[in-house]
């Protein structure tokens, strides 16, 4: 589903007078298969969002290859099979919630009747039925996050890429969302999330811990905790030399 093969990502330039390049990813190798939920776990600036941007084809690696469903960016066929929720809400705030859902559904090739039915489903999922015809500019931050997630899931993609999807949400919304993630994974959807919330990371089938642009540990939460002799994931990360902040 997703394959990183010796991936390096540098930003900046080397000139005859100075080398201003910064290595953000340093030899990343990993594979994510169908129906798995992978959490990228690590401190701010460790490379999580850069990995997400590489998967989405917004960046091309400086060296190595990133393959998604057998294709490299720019994707010819797989783009419409991916649902993406960025860190920052990418919404049209001058139109309503339901119009946002319909617009993005059509952008992903959905038919009119399918768009209508699925938009209603996503509004119910996000508990936004009563706010469906409000302009998004009037939404709270949490409402925008729930709408953004609904847009990512709207076209029932094979792969969900979610960059900190539950930031700003209360425990009940987080619980409902993770129950849905687990249901989707059991039906074959592959999910990659970034999060700083340890109890969410523990619900994932796989963890990839990043620090300094490298993957310092991979495996199930239970495996990583056992292999490090830690009490929990946060303790495991600290024992491996990381910082979960």
**Mind telling me the CATH superfamily name of the largest domain?**
P-loop containing nucleotide triphosphate hydrolases
Q: What is the gyration radius calculated from CA atoms?
A: 19 Å
Count of discrete alpha- or pi-helical segments spanning 4 or more residues: 8
If you average the pLDDT, what whole number results?
93
Strand order of the largest sheet: 5-6-7-3-8-9
Q: H/E series, N to C?
A: EEEHEEHHHEHEHEEHH
Which consecutive residue ranges, at least 5 long each, have pLDDT under 50? Answer: none
Query: Quaternary status of these chains?
Result: single chain
- Helical content (DSSP H or I, runs of 4+): 25-40%
CATH fold-type name of the largest domain: Rossmann fold
Work out the number of β strands: 9
Gap from first CA to last CA = 29 Å
* CATH class assignment of the largest domain: Alpha Beta
Number of structural domains: 2
